[in-house]
Amino acid sequence: MSDAQEVTDTIWQLHMGDGPLVAAAIHDGHATRDEVSALLALDDLARLREEDPFTGEWAEVAPTRVIGLRSRFEVDLNRPREQAVYRKPEDAWGLDVWKSPPPDDLVARSLAEYDGFYTAMRKLLAATEEEYGRFVVFDLHTYNHRRSGPGGPEADAEANPQVNIGTGTMDRSRWGPLIDRFMGDLRAFDFPGGPLDVRENVKFKGGNMARWVHETFPQTGVSISIEFKKIFMDEWTGEPDRALVDSIRAALQSTVPGVLEELKLA
Fold it and tell me: Which residues share a beta bridge with 141?
């Protein structure tokens, strides 16, 4: 890939640069189509609470980055296709998403967006594979830890690490040294308040994006599902702590040289 370029589709934006590192922030988006907005029962803050704000900024550590522009409440690109539109509360953390059930034609349009996204991702990653032989995806997410309310207690830290690394669908015998290097470098970063608590497969094992990458590019692609606990913001108001947002980006940036070094050896 030569000069960096921007490509914007209906639900995602691609900034394409050089190198085998791709960052994806597929839950960064907040917007919804007009027909979806008209049926949503959730207000902006309720949706934002389950989205992954600031992951689009963190994606800038990679030369090539994929940024979601639409809310996961329109279509969730990190779920299997049959679960990508939340139809009932149990699909969405018990939330009543809709004023009335979404009609089939609306769902079909959302799933067409989903299909278009994965078609484009296949093309992007196949081109990266062809040029560099193998590649790494930083699959960036966040998660809540104060679900009992704005004044409620934080979730148990033992079961909720500051950074959860999901590796459940990858061939760890092949990619283990790269994952270990990534986690070690993240822990070694001089983070405000002390080293980050980085653990593997405690809260999440990775979603559909990682599974799809590993099934589609089994010998050449590795997707690291990276979930930051929302220690960097007030998850109930959406207010960020800019110093921590910036520090997380710097921590991710510190892992890039080691990941690229290990990728060459894989």
Answer: 227
Which pLDDT tens digit goes with each residue over 68-119? 999 999 999 999 999 999 999 999 999 999 999 999 999 999 999 999 999 9
List phi, psi (to 5°) of 142. -135, 165
Burial label, 120 (beta-carbon count in 10 A; 0-12, 13-18, 19+): middle
Domain with 133, as residue range(s), is 5-265
Please tell me the distance from the alpha carbon of residue 189 to that of residue 27, in angstroms, as a whole number. 25
Residue range 38-57, pLDDT digits in tens: 999 999 999 999 999 999 99
Count of structural domains, the chain: 1
C-alpha–C-alpha distance, residues 156 and 150, integer Å: 16
Q: CA 200, 202, 207, 211 torsion: positive or negative?
A: positive
**Residue 128 to residue 115: CA distance in whole angstroms:** 20
Residue type, 180: D
* Per-residue confidence band for 8, with pLDDT thresholds at 50, 70 and 90: low
With tokens 């959860």, the residue in question is 164
Instruction: Specify the residue for token string 């934080």.
Output: 154
> pTM score, two decimals?
0.95
Contact 237, 218 (CB under 8 A): no
Return the number of other C-beta atoms located less than 10 Å from residue 251's C-beta: 23
Q: The CATH number of the domain where 26 resides is what?
A: 3.40.630.40
E-assigned strands of the chain? Answer: 5-8, 12-16, 21-25, 64-68, 135-143, 163-166, 198-200, 221-229
DSSP code of 136?
A: E
Asked if 158 and 152 touch (Cβ cutoff 8 Å), the reply is no
